[in-house]
């Protein structure tokens, strides 16, 4: 095989398929990149047996052929090359690479040993705006569980119905829900699936992303198709927790908080809360202030008063400040969030309303 391609185009292609390479597999072929050159097109494939990625780019192909090269070494080589034409020439189990004044010879693996790219026939599919979807995933992604013993909690519930996209994630200590209205290709029937959180986040961050992304499902797969990229992940089996039963119909106290002031105050108060990540929130309905406080037997204590708008009764609650920060960061550019409280030992709920409506439920800690 023989082909040449620009360094910039090659570097982007490798960064797209890199997520599919196995990092610690006992099978060397799974840490390789399968390359097929044919009819002026280069096709790259990677798989770790859980996800499979295929990406195509234009190239000057002089001789058709297939090969498998070490993904890590090839990526490291291409990153260091100047933005010029890179020529590949392969014969047997050796690949020669040249660019400008640089040249390399790499040992290759047998392409027939590389797993075939999964075939799929989508039972359901929907096309969504990728930029909006990416913003929504960013808001819920950190709430997915890292506990491998409960894989269902590592997923994000995606539902699309009547032009409303909704994402839900929970790790059993907190819950994040966001929704937004947009034109979709949805039919009368709702589109519902559970996507592995890491996969969802990785896909939408790929440099080959287009304005819209097609998401489809089979019995065992979630499939993403955009531009010249196809990304297939194993589906998470199981039933997502019924999150709606956690949402109370009303609240005893509602507090409107300036996000920027709140983030700065929380950052200062939490300096003391090193060993114990608990920060206490005392809402004074009459005074229109919320006191943030933290204490540590070894370090001392900290307090800060924050002016707020309060509806309802005075209330106190203690929350894990790491989790509160995740909420504040997810609120992003929003100027205001509303904190809703029922009682000291019931969950706190943060809400913000904009193009993307956001709800973040957090279990309290003991005071």
Automatic annotation (TrEMBL):
Main location: cytoplasm
Subcellular location: Cytoplasm
Domain DNA polymerase III beta sliding clamp N-terminal per the UniProt entry, residue ranges: 1-117
Start and end residues of each DNA polymerase III beta sliding clamp central domain: 128-242
Coiled-coil boundaries: none
GO CC term, one of those recorded: cytoplasm
UniProt keyword list: Cytoplasm, DNA replication, DNA-binding, DNA-directed DNA polymerase, Nucleotidyltransferase, Transferase
Domain DNA polymerase III beta sliding clamp C-terminal, first and last residues per copy: 244-366
Any GO BP: DNA strand elongation involved in DNA replication
Subunit structure: Forms a ring-shaped head-to-tail homodimer around DNA.
PANTHER family for the chain: BETA SLIDING CLAMP, DNA POLYMERASE III SUBUNIT BETA
Family stated for the protein in its record: Belongs to the beta sliding clamp family.
Function: Confers DNA tethering and processivity to DNA polymerases and other proteins. Acts as a clamp, forming a ring around DNA (a reaction catalyzed by the clamp-loading complex) which diffuses in an ATP-independent manner freely and bidirectionally along dsDNA. Initially characterized for its ability to contact the catalytic subunit of DNA polymerase III (Pol III), a complex, multichain enzyme responsible for most of the replicative synthesis in bacteria; Pol III exhibits 3'-5' exonuclease proofreading activity.
Official protein name in the record: Beta sliding clamp
Organism: Olsenella porci
